[in-house]
Amino acid sequence: MQHADRATPWDAATRPEIIQGGMGVGVSSWPLARAVSRLGQLGVVSGTATESLMVRRLQDGDPGGHVRRSMARFPLPAVADDVLRRFFLPEGRPPGTPYRLLPLARQASSVAREQITMLGAFVEVDLAKEGHDGLVGMNLLTKIQLPTLATLYGAMLAGVDVILMGAGIPREIPAVLDALAAHQPASWKFEVVGLPADRTEHLTFDPRVHWAGEPPPLRRPAFLAIVASNSLAMVLARKASGRVDGFVVEGPTAGGHNAPPRGEPRLNDRGEPLYGPRDEVDLAKLAELGLPFWLAGGAGSPEGLARARAAGAAGIQVGTLFAFCDESGITAPLRRSILASARRGDLDVRTDGQASPTGYPFKVVTWPDDPARDAERERVCDLGYLRVAYARPDGAIGYRCSGEPVDQYVAKGGRVEDTEGRRCLCNRLVATVGLGQVRDDGAVEPPLVTSGDDLLTIARFLGDRSHYAAADVIAYLRPTAHAAVTAATPTAVAMPAS
Known about the structure:
By secondary structure, this protein is an alpha/beta fold. It has 17 helices and 15 strands.
């Protein structure tokens, strides 16, 4: 078994210049990550809700057989067999039939719930790594705690090379990776609102529960922390529980969740959070930590890459350009509609301080042909990834989400004002990748698209094209290097149809 503190999977000469952003729920899909990795850069899959995406793809008949092909490689075959038996529908769901749901994750999840979480992460990483020897990463949100340990372990069983985490302070994750690489129990502090000062809760995961015999050797993936400030980078570099291998420095123009502005909250005339000098990262000080870093948010251009390298960065993380390419998980009709709107110049990207149940600012795309523009949605929380744990009066731990029905949220001790303007990101982001739930009245969950501010200027990159591939993004960012890599790259295996 390889030791947990092995060297990172790259050195100064081989580490990637471009990291493909780990976007949304299934937007950074395995076809996208694999396409980027095959071209010598770091392809990244989203680690959010991978088990829910897996069982929904199975219920849709698993077109192309990709999920089942990967499940056959899972080292716990009885788990894969059970999931197939429970969820695979060879002909897909009959029209108007809702997806069958998984039990919501909890602090003490069942062995079966852990295993299906492991399998979902395994499938996403395994398919991204199929047919090449490039690096593949997985992106997770620190705010989403409940499934994380099992997700990390499943990704490691598939050989994930890099773990990237932001949306919080992932200080304990390096030690978690060390433990999981040795198949040892792992834990991290569970954030529970309203706990007494003398009480601490933890989330735990014991890999040994899942093996009757000797588990396969694992290697510890590199760990990149996504940060928005020098102080957080310094804390993680010096006080994290184990080795940090680098940083992604994400500015407020990046898509998805953004770090809140530092200091007293202020809004512009559009109601968006205002960022100022305190939110700027001093790259010279960051470089003094001696760890590689990549710049994200508004860096997705050849000029952005050149500026990043001149500032001492190893390269850039690019989200928006990859989010709307052919291999992205966003459904083809949505991609085409948004790109057409971008060429016309009639779309908008707004930083919404209320949309996300996490309380973090969240970027939302609006455009004239948005199919969800006038859609009414009943408040329901049945995926539950963004629920917050809270201490109940009897001392037990409960779960609530400001996107759930208001009366339920308030009955759980939540403030009614915290529900205003909240959207169900879980269900709506899943709908964005074509797996939206069917409700009792026959309505399908409406999509919600997030993007960085670069979408406002993507028409310059598009030119007269109506669509483009991940390889076009790499060629645009690194034209000379891309040509050399493409000439030496083997032909890809078939991708699932968009």
